[in-house]
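Quick one:
INPUT:
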């Protein structure tokens, strides 16, 4: 098997690094998307808790 030249090795490493960067960008995008969804879920739960508390307050006043 022929040995790779320095340029070939460098090119191979560059391609692996580019693939790794692309994968990291994908993971970062998914992370940010899930983070937004979780923040919205927390806001929704907080709204539901406020509604429940107000219903309890109404029951206590009757």
């Amino acid at each position: 098997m022929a040995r790779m030249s320095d340029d070939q090795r460098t090119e191979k490493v560059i391609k692996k690094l580019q693939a790794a960067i692309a994968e990291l960008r994908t993971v970062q995008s998914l992370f940010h998307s899930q983070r937004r969804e979780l923040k919205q879920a927390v806001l929704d739960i907080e709204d539901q808790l406020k509604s429940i508390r107000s219903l309890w307050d109404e029951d206590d006043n009757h």
